[in-house]
Amino acid sequence: MSTETPVPTGTGDNRYVSVANTPEFAALRRALRRFVFPVSAAFLVWYALYVLLSAYARDFMSTKVVGHVNIALIFGLLQFVSTFLIAWLYTRYADRRVDPLADELRAKIEGSPE
Amino acid sequence: MSDITLAVGASTTRTLTLTLFVVLVAATLAITIWASRQTKSAADFYAGGRSFTGFQNGMAIGGDYMSAASFLGIAGIIALNGYDGFLYSIGFLVAWLVALLLVAELMRNSGRYTMADVLAFRMRQAPVRTAGSISTIIVSIFYLLAQMVGAGALVALLLGIKAGDTFLGMSAETAKIVTIALIGVLMIVYVTVGGMKGTTYVQIVKAFMLMLGALLLTLMVFAAFKFNLSSLLGEAAAKSGRTPPESFLQPGLRYGRDIAGNATATLASKLDLISLGLALVLGTAGLPHILIRFYTVPDSKAARKSVVWAIGIIGVFYLMTLALGFGAAALVGRQAILAQDPGGNTAAPQLAEALGKRYLGGDFGGSLLLAIIAAVAFATILAVVAGLTLASSSSLAHDLYANVIKRGQTTERQEVVVARYSAFVIGAVAIVLGIFARNLNVAFLVALAFAIAASANLPAILFSLFWKKFNTRGATWGIYAGLLSAVGIVLLSPIAWGGVSDARTPATLTAAQAKTCGVEQTSKQVSNATALFSCTTAAPIPLENPGLISIPIGFIFAAIGAITSKERNPDKYAELEARSLTGAGAH
Fold it and tell me: Which residue in B355, B34, B402, B387 sits closest to B191, CA to CA?
């Protein structure tokens, strides 16, 4: 961050507002939304697909894959896998891309005025 | 094996079960008293001093969330209806991603003690807190009622008290009432004495017990099938009594049924499945007793960690319920489960008894494992009801009393006193309602609580965290419209009116049901014999789950309310955003 905006000089609540209007804050907002919005849309569509297939594609879901294990069971287990995977990916992303920005701005807001 | 407690003599099982119940109650009360010594400030009472670690809170979230409905209920649905129980567990799990990605951290940073704190941050306090509090209390009371009524029936079943039988001089009916009252008194004690700290430790203990109990049973089930999943599934299907047996392993026996020759009924059943799925996945992140758990950790990073732990714990648990359900179908059998409880709630305890006999040395082993699982189920109920009581009494004291009635002019000390009284009042109301409703079919209340959480709470929470123009009218319209539509639809649904219609096919009645409904047993007028108001009048709306209609209504009214109101406060939103994203100034 070489192009830092000056530390806001206001006190109390004003500091929040002035920090919220900096480009660094916009970058933080973008970093968070860039991950959570598309991923939320993706897992909701993926879940909706599972529910819709369970309701309307019974023959497909009933196809046996190995022994008594059918596609419905595998599809259901994949929902578990995708949930675990997204939780892990989000933690990794937030640790690396979001937390450093957030910590810096937080220090700016909470830091002493001088 | 057809009867859970007949084999060894009911007395061994009862003695063991009661001993474990007493040990459990004594242990949780000891924890509560210990926690009460460390509960001094309002932050201690409402948020456990915000001192729990991510892992501890993750366990407590699991303890708060995995209700008896999900332990015994889902295992029972799988044991009787096969695959469809899995649809429930998947919705319950995937829902946590909404909480993880969109709600938990931002809420932790911007709120203090209750759900309405986040809404009230940039809106007019009184109307928004009133709406948030009403919705919190209604969701919690419905959920609480379902747990308590379920517990009454369950304990009577676990102790093997049937109609006409007595235990310590109590009939099954008296035992139900005593159980409901006892659970009510315990939850009042946990909350008033131990506050959030005591409640959290009770939930952590319960989560450990539940995970260990489920793991033990799962390992035994797999051992019985030589760790071959396919042969477990094959045996479960073969013993399911379904034709063809394979249909037991496929979706469609319970939800979204294909009703031959009736396209309207088929459509209604499929829409009901989609509606249920929607409410499950969007409801979790709007459940007040879950949301207040995010305040018990020091910062948003710990809140994130706790949700990730919760996802791991809850996910593994639901995978195990799959093994328990199919294991019960294979090892106990459909007839034996139905003979004990037509709802299937005793499938898991019956499985425990069968496995105990097989692996822990005969009849005594069976009684022992049954007693252990019964104690786990009891712990499960206690932890969940305590969480619900705390959420509703916190909102009553912090939102309604301190910020609406007293307009913020009160001390922390007074607020906590009021919160303790509130817990007492809510507990007493729940006991009375539970006793009155003890023989009603109230299982639908859990799904309804999820639907209200998704329709009333979630739109208001998401919009206030992410939408600059959101305001007081948007929040109140969204909450009231979501709440009223969800409840209204259920009051017009087949849950309330059980008659046959184009979309509802006749049910096979038992003699007792026919008598209750006042029809011949061969009558084709009744679709739902346990309907609340009438079992012969047809429901105007054929959906049992309101989510498909009420969730869009909640979001649309919240949006219209916000757009039509002139109230805008960009600076307040900037401050909320700065706080919620950076954690600066968090409580």
Answer: B387
pLDDT over 70 percentage in chain B: 97
- What residue in A sits closest to B462 (Cα-Cα)? A37
Residue numbers of the domain that contains A74 = 12-110
Residues 475-494 of chain B with CB under 8 A from chain A are none
Rounded to an integer, what distance in angstroms lies between the CA atom of residue B572 and that of residue B541?
A: 42
Contact flag B251-A25 (C-beta cutoff 8 Å): no
Cis preceding-peptide flag for A113 (omega within 30 of 0): no
Does residue B72 surpass a pLDDT of 90? no
Taking the CA of residue A33 and the nearest CA in chain B, the distance in Å comes to 9
| Averaged pLDDT for residues B328-346 | 89
Model confidence over B175-215: pLDDT tens digits? Answer: 889 989 999 999 999 999 999 999 999 999 999 999 999 99
Element (H, E) at B166: strand B166-167
Interchain pair B86, A17: CB under 8 A: no
CB–CB of B108/B295 below 8 Å?
yes
User: Structural domain tally of chain A?
Assistant: 1
Beta bridge partners of B501: B504
Closest Cα partner for B500 from B483, B525, B464, B518?
Answer: B525
In a domain, residue A2? The reply is no
Geometric angle at alpha carbon B31, from B30 and B33, rounded to 5°:
65
Task: State residue B161's pLDDT score.
Answer: 63
Closest CA to B508 of B534, B527, B530: B527
pLDDT band at B342 (very low <50, low <70, confident <90, very high): confident
Backbone angles phi, psi at A69, to 5 degrees: -80, 120
On whether residue A6 sits in a domain, the answer given is no
State the Cα–Cα distance between residues A24 and B178, nearest whole angstrom: 61
Whether A1 is in a domain gets the answer no
At residue B503 the predicted structure's pLDDT band, cuts being 50, 70 and 90, is confident
pTM for the model: 0.93
If you count them, how many residues does chain A have?
114
Of A29, A72, A87, the CB nearest to B581: A29
Say yes or no for a CB contact (<8 Å) between B97 and A43: yes
Instruction: Determine, for residues B83 and A73 on separate chains, whether the beta-carbon distance falls below 8 Å.
Output: yes
DSSP 3-state of B499:
strand
User: Which residues of A fall within a CB distance of 8 Å from B234?
Assistant: 67-68
Query: Is A80–B90 a contact, with Cβ atoms under 8 angstroms apart?
Result: yes
Cβ–Cβ of B246/A55 closer than 8 Å?
A: no
User: Do the domain assignments include residue A62?
Assistant: yes
pLDDT at A4: 42
Q: Which residues of A touch B249 (CB under 8 A)?
A: 68, 70, 72-73
- CA pair distance B158, B349, nearest whole angstrom: 8
- Residue range B59-71: mean pLDDT, rounded: 89
- Residue B504's DSSP bridge partners are B501
Task: Report the alpha-carbon distance of residue B392 to residue B289 in Å, rounded.
Answer: 8
* pLDDT exceeds 70 at position B6: no
Q: What is the DSSP string of A23-82?
A: HHHHHHHHHHHHHHHHHHHHHHHHHHHHHHHHHH-HHHHT-EEETTEEHHHHHHHHHHHH
- Residue B170's DSSP bridge partners are B167
Three-class secondary structure of residue B504 per DSSP: strand
Buried b (16+ CB within 10 A) or exposed e, B43-78: bbbbbbbbbbebbbbbbbbbbbbbbbbbbbbbbbbb
Question: Which of the 8 DSSP states describes residue B565?
Answer: -
